């Protein structure tokens, strides 16, 4: 299944397969998101999920407060619905 990923404040939408991390989708479309480890442990690729649902069971960095406020690690966040994300860099 393919979902749309939109950057908050942008009219651009990118198609992302449910088996592709949001980070890879954005990079494939020349959208810069800072990253280091690509395995969900460093936290550098953190973005805010404004709307939508992701599977990020592989993440090992975010605490409950960050999760509750909508933060996701884009390197291990797989879309389960269309999503709008806010990038911090």
- As residue ranges, the low-confidence spans are none
Residues in β-strands, percent: 25-35%
Shape: globular
What's the total number of strands?
7
The main sheet orders its strands as 2-1-7-3-5
Radius of gyration: 11 Å
**CATH H-level homologous superfamily name:** Beta-grasp domain
What's the main sheet like?
5 strands, mixed
Oligomer status: single chain
Element pattern in H and E: EEHEEHEEE
Q: Into how many domains do the coordinates divide?
A: 1
Q: What class do helices, strands and sheet pairing give? A: alpha+beta
> What is the share of helical residues?
10-25%
- CATH-assigned fold name: Ubiquitin-like (UB roll)
Overall pLDDT: 96
CATH architecture: Roll
CATH class: Alpha Beta
Given the structure, what is the number of helices?
2
Notable characteristics:
89 residues, Ubiquitin-like (UB roll), two-stranded antiparallel ribbon, 13% helix
Protein described:
- Strand 1 and strand 2 (13-17) form a beta hairpin.
- This protein has helices spanning 22-28, 64-68; strands at residues 2-7, 13-17, 46-51, 54-55, 71-73, 78-79, 83-86.
- Helix content is 13%, strand content 31%.
- The longest helix is centred in the N-terminal third of the chain and has 7 residues, at 22-28.
- The protein has a single domain (2-86), classed as Roll (Ubiquitin-like (UB roll)), CATH 3.10.20.
- With 89 residues, the protein is an alpha+beta fold.
- The model has no long low-confidence stretch (mean pLDDT 96).
- It has a 5-stranded mixed β-sheet with strand order 2-1-7-3-5.
